[in-house]
Amino acid sequence: MEPSKKSSSKKSVAKSEESGNPYGETDMCCCCLCQCQEKEVKDLSCCGCLPIKCGVITIGALTIAIAFLIGVETFYGLLNEYTDWWYIVVCFVLLAPLFVGTAFFIAFFGKDTEGTRTLAFTACQLTIIAVTLLCIWNTIYFLYFYKKDKVYFGNTETGYLTLTKRQYFFFCFFITAAIDASYMYFVCVTAAYSDRLKEKKIPETMMDAMKDMMEEMMEEKMEEMMEEKMEGMDEMMMEEPAAME
Fold it and tell me: Which partner for 176 in 24, 135, 205, 210 could form a disulfide, CB atoms 3.0-4.6 Å apart?
């Protein structure tokens, strides 16, 4: 029974290699058994539990969710009677890097290439920049321009959530620090994913160049052999009439 099992496993691996699948049929990854990552990055992980490609996709989805939530919350501030309209405008200007980073991740979702992997790395940096700038602007506005003693969230129809300035700054700084710390780690993840695939492409290009050189050499050898055969045939044709005479 053991030899039959070994032969069947070898056949399955051979079939997977012929079909273009870099993994054997018995070598399933933990990402929903979808084998979504390439063999070059198989030893890398995100957060210690996710395959790195699945982690990068999760980072992109998280970035889109953060951009949506912050955008909706900021736009909702236009209904607030206690804040100035230009405060909201400045918030959207400072959030522009976050929206650009979201577009970069959408491009990565469309096609995983060397360029889009670099865009995913850049998107994490833009997220840190946007969230940090927004925190700084909130601090400046509510310290120097906001004249109320308390910070009000909401509108007249649904009611207001009231916080002291100290409470508001605590939650603002805490959320900003959590997002920045997380995305600093995500920068490392996306950089490792991009760099590993770049490193693996260098030998592939060298192998392709060597194959091209071998093909050219084989063609030259074949041409030389054909020329030698043709010369031999010509000599034999010239010798036969002389022998007849």
Answer: 135
Q: Is the pLDDT of residue 139 over 60?
A: yes
- Domains of the chain by residue range: 49-236
The pLDDT confidence band at residue 24, using thresholds 50, 70 and 90, is very low
Helix (H) or strand (E) holding 153: strand 150-155
Distance CA 114, CA 127 (A): 20
Q: What are the φ and ψ backbone dihedral angles of 53, each rounded to 5 degrees?
A: -70, -40
Nearest alpha-carbon partner for 124 in 212, 51, 192, 217: 192
Distance separating alpha carbons of residues 116 and 51, to the nearest angstrom = 18
- For residue 150, CA distances in Å to 143, 193, 214 come to 11, 46, 77
Count of other CB atoms within 10 angstroms of residue 130: 22
pLDDT at 127: 96
Question: Do the beta carbons of residue 174 and residue 163 sit within 8 Å?
Answer: no
0.70 exceeded by the pTM? no
